[in-house]
C-alpha cells in the first residue's frame, strides 16, 4: 500500500519538474535571442539551473514512487546540500548588503551614490568585471529616457526621482558644479570645481556620459543591494519549503527501507 509521504514527495517533484521545463526553455531562448553582453552572460547559468532542477526532480519522483531507496538517498543528500548552501548564501547576502545607501541632496529629488560606501566584497567583484558590466550598461541604454527629455527645464529636472543607475551613470556628480543644459548635457564653467575624479570622466556623448564613473559603479551596487535583499527574503521562503519537502522525503526514505526489510524477511 502506497505511503502518504512517498506520494507527497512524488507530487511535489512533479511540480518542480514541470517548472524546470520553462527555465531550460528560457535559457535556450536567451542564447538564441541574446544581443547584449548581459544576456549572453546569463544564458548558461539559467540552462544549468533548469537541468539541475530537472535531474533532482526526476531522482525524487523515481526514488519515492518506484521505491528506489538508493536514488531517494541521493535525492535527500542533494536536498540537504542545497538547503545548507542556500542558508549560507542567504546569510552572506544580508551581510554584504548591509552597507551603503544613497545620499540625499538638498533641493534635489534624486540621490547621489558613492562607490566607497558599499561592501568591500561587492566593490571588488564589480571592479573585476567592470569591462563586461560597462558594455552591458551602454547596451541597455538606461539613459535614453533622459536623453529624450532634452527640453526639460533645470528646476523640473532637479525634482526628478531618478533611479540609482540613472543618477550615477547619466549625469555628472553634484560635486562638479557643472551648468545644466539638459538632463544629459552639462557644461563646465569658471565656477566648476573638480574635487571628484568623476568630473573629468563626464562627457556629453550619449554612449559615454558617466558610464565610466565611480558613481555609475555605485548606482549599480545600490541596485544589486536592493535585488539581493529581495532574493534573500525569497530564499527564506524557499528554504522553509525545501525543509518541509526534505522532512517528507526522509519519511519516504524510511518507508522504503521498511518495505525492503519486509520483502527481505517475509
Characterization of this structure:
Belongs to the tetraspanin (TM4SF) family. It is found in: Membrane. InterPro entries: Neuro-gated_channel_TM_sf (IPR036719), TET_plant (IPR044991), Tetraspanin/Peripherin (IPR018499), Tetraspanin_CS (IPR018503). Keywords: Membrane, Transmembrane, Transmembrane helix. This is Tetraspanin-8. The chain is mainly alpha-helical and 266 residues long. It has nine helices and four strands; from the N terminus they run αααββαααααββα. It has helices spanning 4-33, 37-65, 69-96, 120-128, 130-140, 144-147, 154-158, 164-169, 214-264; strands at 103-104, 111-112, 179-182, 185-187. The strands form two sheets. It has a two-stranded antiparallel ribbon with strand order 1-2. Strands 3-4 form a two-stranded antiparallel ribbon. The longest helix has 51 residues, at 214-264. The two termini are 16 Å apart. Mean pLDDT is 81; it is low at 262-266.
How would you briefly describe this protein structure?
The protein is mainly alpha-helical and 266 residues long. It has helices at residues 4-33, 37-65, 69-96, 120-128, 130-140, 144-147, 154-158, 164-169, 214-264; strands spanning 103-104, 111-112, 179-182, 185-187. The protein has nine helices and four strands; from the N terminus they run αααββαααααββα.
